[in-house]
Design a protein that fits this description.
This protein is an alpha/beta fold. It is built from 11 helices and 11 strands.
Length: 332
């Protein structure tokens, strides 16, 4: 599976990941294919720690390119990585993840047999220390079953384990700069947005899931806090219209404000009541109940909050025109 022209570039975007990069690069050096089957592109996204030195020290033996992107933001880094990519496919993996020993092998087999536009697989958590008793592994996992299959139109893949046909990403305009992660902030949804745009623009778009395309992702201590997930769900709700390319509505602001207050009251009352009378065989800790039963309500609150506070902000078609212009300026 080797050769001078690998079929796969592995894109790693890193913001202050000097502590995690060694584990990731070790997992890539251990791939069953050998090192000639892929190239690694590490995009250092304005890190202020020793990320560059960690890449230099632990990337020995890998076919590796280091790129510095001074504009903070995951999608700035991703688009910079695509400008340096040469292979037909680009595999995304987070800097704090670890690839299964057959990750590359399985990706290449899927590429050669299925020829998807997008493929990916599950991720499961790993920890560097103890986690709270209430926090279940599945809270930070993405598993779609044990059978390889094409994804339906309402299914998406995680950004820490997705492989894109490079020409398709360039065709649809790259990753949007106004959606997604910046530094350690909370908004997500950038890969979902790209998948939705690809499905809109490419009638025969093929997305494929294979359980053997497997990675383990670091669950940081702060992400085992219920407060973190409440804030993240609220932030995701605020990003909803951008992620799903929904145009601004024309409902009166006072109506939206009323819905916001009513929803907040309902969420507060229901959460307090049900945490006390919950089925403890299903939800042994009150945090389990809030995580599994209330986060969707918090997401809705975020949508309403953004609708009220972001009144007359450009969304939908206006935003889509804006990000096309941005990507034209950076050459994608």
């Amino acid at each position: 599976m080797g050769g001078m022209n690998p079929v796969l570039d592995v894109l790693v975007c890193a913001f202050n990941e000097a502590g995690s990069i060694p584990r990731l690069l070790k997992s890539l050096r251990s791939q069953s294919t050998g090192l000639g089957a892929f190239r690694v592109i590490v995009v250092d996204n304005a890190s202020t720690d020793r990320t560059e030195q960690a890449v230099e020290e632990h990337g020995i033996g890998l076919n590796l390119a280091y790129v510095y992107e001074p504009r903070l933001g995951l999608n700035h880094a991703r688009n910079a990585g695509y400008r340096h990519a040469r292979a037909p496919y680009v595999a995304h993996i987070d800097a704090d993840a670890q690839a299964d020993i057959r990750w590359i092998e399985t990706i290449i087999r899927v590429i050669r047999t299925v020829e998807p536009d997008l493929c990916g697989g599950p991720y499961f958590p790993y920890y560097l220390g103890p986690k709270p008793a209430w926090f279940l592994d599945r809270y930070n996992s993405n598993y779609k079953g044990s059978a390889p299959r094409y994804l339906s139109d309402d299914e998406h893949l995680s950004g820490t384990n997705m492989i894109w046909r490079r020409a398709l990403v360039e065709r649809v305009g790259g990753f949007r700069l106004d959606v997604g992660l910046t530094g350690r902030n909370l908004p997500r949804g950038d890969e979902t947005n790209l998948i939705l745009r690809a499905r809109e623009q490419i009638p025969d778009f093929k997305a494929y899931y294979h359980p053997g395309i497997l990675v383990h992702h670091l669950t940081r201590p702060e992400t085992t806090s219920l407060w973190y997930w409440l804030r993240r769900s609220f932030a995701a709700g605020r990003q909803h219209n951008k992620v799903f390319n929904i145009a601004s509505h024309d409902r009166a602001r006072v109506y939206l404000l009323g819905r916001l207050l009513k929803t907040a009251a309902l969420v507060g009352g229901r959460s307090a009541k049900m945490c006390l009378v919950r089925d403890r065989t299903v939800f042994p800790y009150w945090q389990n109940y809030v995580y599994e039963c209330c986060l969707l309500d918090i997401y809705r609150l975020g949508r309403l909050w953004e609708a009220v506070t972001g009144w007359n902000q450009p969304t939908g078609t206006q935003v889509k025109d804006g990000f096309r212009a941005k990507f034209a300026r950076v050459g994608l």
